Amino acid sequence: MAQRGVLLSFEGGEGSGKTTHARRLSEHLKELGFAVKLTREPGGTPLGERIREVLLGLDDELGPLEEFLLFSTARAQVVRTVIRPALKAASVVVVDRYYHSSYAYQGGGGGLSLEYMRSVTAGIVGDCVPDLVLLLDVAPETGLSRCAGAGGKDGTASDRFERKDVEFHRKVRAAFLECARAEPKRFVVIDASQSEDEVFAQVRDAALVVLRARGLQPTAK
Ligand code: TYD
């Protein structure tokens, strides 16, 4: 059977540093000679980016079910057009948020049934389940204060999820940790209150252990 790639997802609350570390890890693995595909959720495709604008920009009343279905639509497309083909081509796929974000935000934060989300998600992702979930764990007070600088992360205005109260973000954090407890072999929980370099060292080591275990070799150099 042809070698399948490896799927690594980054998860965590607001201001946990996922985007920074997803980019840094992708660059590092490329330098080591691996074929790497970096993508993000919601987004990663033109439709996904538009859904992202709707989801993050809308001030309208939007319940967790509507949110989940919109995220799921974006997810279905990114799995079909980006993640599955890249895994088939034996690449390392790095995804900045994946379905555990739905379990944490719409489930833990919004109260949507986990059982329902699991069954829809199974149909959407199929065998594109992460080999490793890097959960960057930080207290919401710390994460949200990082986002608050310069009007929001990346200097952009805060989005509808960042604007939710700290109690919502505490529930999101607890739900992420519960996902990790339920699947201890798939998750590595990293204390994201440490310095960027300290966090990255743990991210890199955990990723390399999984790549080695899966027997994936650099393709270039
Ligand atoms: P993003 O700007 O990517 O946030 P971050 O930089 O913190 O990763 O925005 C994604 C937002 O969407 C984030 O607040 C979490 C939320 N989200 C969900 O609520 N459910 C989901 O399934 C996904 C993928 C994201």
Describe the structure.
- The protein has a single domain, classed as P-loop containing nucleotide triphosphate hydrolases (Rossmann fold, 3-Layer(aba) Sandwich), CATH 3.40.50.300.
- Helix 2 packs antiparallel against helix 3.
- It starts with 5 loop residues before the first strand and ends in an 8-residue tail after the last helix.
- It has helices at 18-31, 46-57, 64-88, 99-109, 114-125, 140-148, 166-182, 196-213; strands at residues 6-12, 36-40, 92-96, 132-137, 187-191.
- The protein has a five-stranded parallel beta sheet with strand order 2-3-1-4-5, sandwiched between helices.
- The protein is built from eight helices and five strands, in the order βαβααβααβααβα.
- It is α/β, with parallel strands linked by helices.
- It is globular and about 45 Å long.
- Bound molecules: thymidine-5'-diphosphate (TYD).
- The site of thymidine-5'-diphosphate has 15 residues, from helix 1 and helix 4.
